[in-house]
Amino acid sequence: MDKTEFIIENFGVSKRAAELVAEAEESVRDKFAEFESIAEINQLKVMKAFSDNRVSERHFMPTTGYGYDDDGRDTLDKVYAQIFGCEDALVRHNWVNGSHTLATMLYGVLRPGDTLLAVTGKPYDTLEEVIGISGEPGNGSLADYGISYSEISLTSDGDVDLEAVGAALREKRIKAAFIQRSKGYGDRPTYSAERIGRIVRFIKSVSPDTICMVDNCYGEFADGTEPTDHGADLIAGSLIKNPGGGIAPTGGYIAGRHDLIELCACRLTCVGIGRECGSTMGFNRYAYQGLFMAPHTVMQAIKAAALCSAVFSRLGYEADPKPDEDRHDIIQSVKFGDKEKMIAFIQGIQKGAPVDSFVTPEPWDMPGYQDQVIMAAGAFTQGSSIELSADAPVREPFMAYMQGGLTYESAKLGITVAADNILKLDNMGK
Length: 430
Prior knowledge:
It is a single chain. The chain is α/β, with parallel strands linked by helices. The protein is globular. 41% of the residues lie in helices and 13% in strands.
């Protein structure tokens, strides 16, 4: 029995869906080779950093209590800094998700009277209450602390409006510029590390003292370089996304300028303690091993995203990025324009999960979001989006966002079932 027959017989998908995926897979083989080349470059960077910092078994030993002199923790910071081409890094299990890590970066750097300028439009939904765009006054947002906020809308083609950014920088002193690498729940391109570098250089040419901070979530190891290689002052992300490699069970990182990392450390713990305390309780082994696996795991996820794009483009839906485009993160969006089809897609992706594949996702009121959200997430680590997942806010244009896949083969299964679900709906509509 070949693989097409196996999937038809054992997972109940139609022959048409299985053949469609097989055809789409052949069409993106050349892109797969490009992704594998990037993964090899990044794997070599990780290997060099491990070797240069003499990573050994002793760095995996757990500490408790205050965690003074935790060499595994401190060496992990150095490894991240080297890989990301910057002065310093802070890698900790204390952060509960990417939003928490990004919030620490914002609170660590900004002070009352400062202004934060978002140059890539409105940030991801879960940062709205952190900034004070939404939510109840008095909850401790940046706005509650007298930190001003403004944003620059993107151009019609989804690029940064440098003219408007320059005007805002000249009009008043901007303490920090915020750049979001991925599209979030938006409809615009993801920016490459190199493109972010050009944005940073423009900002610095107008306002040299403005701190450039990047939400790097979903983008780590998708390019051969990171935003800090191109001049970003700080980047931040989650360890249950790309850099955790599907192994780190929690945590986040901030990397960049040493002086700013020290400020973030004082926000993570408290002033006077900073990074000196913090036991790791066995976390280091998972963080190191996940980082080692990350370049390969990210490549698996990017291959899955390219396949998804090729399949649903063939079905007539708008996919971004397109199958033959370069990729700078693990996210693939598909615009359905129809609520029922969007839900059917996400329910199909759930079938490719190793955990809870039998579950049928439904929209719900997810904390931190302004709209109901539907999410496919059958992961070994709850909420891990380097593992196969798909989600969407239940609002027009009913666009679904798929990301992750620890193995390309398992992600391919989810994509096949999702395609079969859409084909069945299309047939019902005829």
